[in-house]
Design brief:
The chain is of the alpha/beta class. It is built from 11 helices and 12 strands. The chain folds into 2 domains: about 140 residues, Rossmann fold, CATH 3.40.50; about 120 residues, Elongation Factor Tu (Ef-tu), domain 3 (Beta Barrel), CATH 2.40.30.30. Strands 1-4-3-2-5-6 form a 6-stranded mixed beta sheet, sandwiched between helices. The longest helix has 21 residues. The radius of gyration is 23 Å and the shape is elongated.
C-alpha cells in the first residue's frame, strides 16, 4: 500500500536516509534534541536526514468528534521543522487506512519502500502502528526489511508538548516559551469587533484564530506583533457585558493603521494579569493605562526592544 506523502526541502528527491517519526506538535526543545541526533547520525553515515510527520492529528481520524488544541498548525509545524538542519520533511496524510497499519507494515511499506529509510531513530516514548508494539519489536521488523533501529537519548518529560500546553493553559508564558525554545504565538485574521476599545481610548484588533490552535488562559499579555509591541486580552470582556463569547483582542502601541481583513502574527512574551471585571468603564480605562505602562516598562528593562528590529 502506497500512502500520500509530500516531501519538503531544498531538494525533494527521496534518497537513503536516517529518519525519525512523530507528530512533533510544537517542535519544542525535546523534539529539536531528537532531530539533532538524526542530523548528526545522517552526517556520519552519509545519508539524508528526514523528519516524518502528519499534517493532521491522528485522533481526528480515530475520533471524529475530537477537537484538538494544537501548539502548531500544519503550516507552522512545517515552517519550524524546515528551520532545523534536517534535509527533508515528509508529511503523510493520516487516514483510516494508515490507522489500520501494523507497525511492521508501516516500516516495510512506508519507511523502507517509499522513503528509503536506512536508519530509524525512535524517541524513548515513541510508538506507532495500531498494534502498539515496542522498541524490541521495531528492531526485529527493521532486521526483516533492512532498517537499523536506534533509540535516541532521553530529553525528559519537562520538555514535552503536554507540558507546554499545560503551561499555556495556566497562563505561564515564560515556562511555555522555555519548553518550546521560542515565543509561542499564532496568526489571526483581523475581523470586526464591538469597537468598545476605540471608545475608551484603546483601539484593538479583534483576531480570528484557527479553531484547532491552543489559546492560552484568559488574561492580559505583553505580546509582539507584525506591527510592533502591544498588549493582548483573551476573555469575555466582563466589564463591557458583551456576552460569554471568548475574544482575542490586541492593542498595538503607537499604531493607527487599519488592519481589517489582514493577517496578524502574535508572539506571547509575558503574562501581565488575569482577566477581571471592573465596576465602571473609568476603572477599566485606568487599569488599561496601568497595563500599558507596565508593558512599556518591561520592554525598556529587558532586551525585548531588540526583538522589534
Amino acid at each position: 500500500m502506497r500512502m500520500n506523502v509530500r516531501v519538503f526541502g531544498k531538494d525533494t528527491a527521496i534518497r537513503p536516509c536516517v529518519a525519525t517519526i512523530g507528530s512533533f506538535d510544537g517542535v519544542h526543545l525535546g523534539h529539536q534534541h531528537v532531530i539533532a541526533q538524526v542530523v548528526e547520525l545522517a552526517r556520519k553515515r552519509g545519508l539524508d536526514a528526514m523528519i516524518v510527520t502528519f499534517p493532521n492529528h491522528p485522533k481526528q481520524v480515530l475520533h471524529p468528534d475530537f477537537s484538538p488544541q494544537l501548539l502548531t498548525t500544519t503550516e507552522e509545524k512545517k515552517e519550524l521543522l524546515m528551520k532545523t538542519e534536517a534535509d527533508k520533511v515528509a508529511m503523510i496524510d493520516f487516514t483510516a487506512e494508515l490507522a489500520q497499519m501494523t507497525a511492521r507494515e508501516f516500516m516495510h511499506n512506508i519507511l523502507k519502500k517509499q522513503l528509503q529509510t536506512e536508519i530509524l531513530l525512535i524517541g524513548y516514548d515513541n510508538r506507532f502502528g495500531h498494534d502498539g508494539k515496542r522498541f524490541d519489536d521495531y528492531v526485529e521488523y527493521g532486521k526483516e526489511c533492512g532498517i537499523e533501529v536506534v533509540e535516541c537519548g532521553k530529553w525528559g518529560e519537562a520538555h514535552s508538548s503536554t507540558a507546554a500546553r499545560n503551561a499555556l493553559l495556566a497562563g505561564d508564558i515564560k515556562q511555555a516559551n522555555s519548553i518550546l525554545g521560542y515565543s509561542y504565538g499564532f496568526k489571526g485574521v483581523v475581523v470586526e469587533g464591538y469597537q468598545n476599545g476605540r471608545k475608551i481610548g484603546y483601539p484593538t484588533a479583534n483576531l480570528q484564530v484557527e479553531a484547532s490552535k491552543l489559546i492560552p488562559k484568559n488574561g492580559v499579555y505583553l505580546v509582539k506583533t507584525d506591527a510592533g509591541f502591544g498588549m493582548l486580552n483573551i476573555g469575555t470582556r466582563p466589564t463591557l457585558h458583551n456576552g460569554k463569547q471568548r475574544s482575542i483582542e490586541v492593542h498595538i502601541f503607537d499604531f493607527e493603521n487599519n488592519l481589517y481583513g489582514k493577517s496578524l502574527k502574535i508572539e506571547f512574551l509575558e503574562h501581565l494579569r488575569d482577566e477581571q471585571e471592573f465596576n465602571s468603564i473609568d476603572m477599566l480605562r485606568h487599569q488599561l493605562a496601568e497595563d500599558e505602562q507596565e508593558c512599556r516598562l518591561r520592554i525598556s528593562k529587558t532586551d525585548l526592544h531588540i526583538q522589534q528590529k
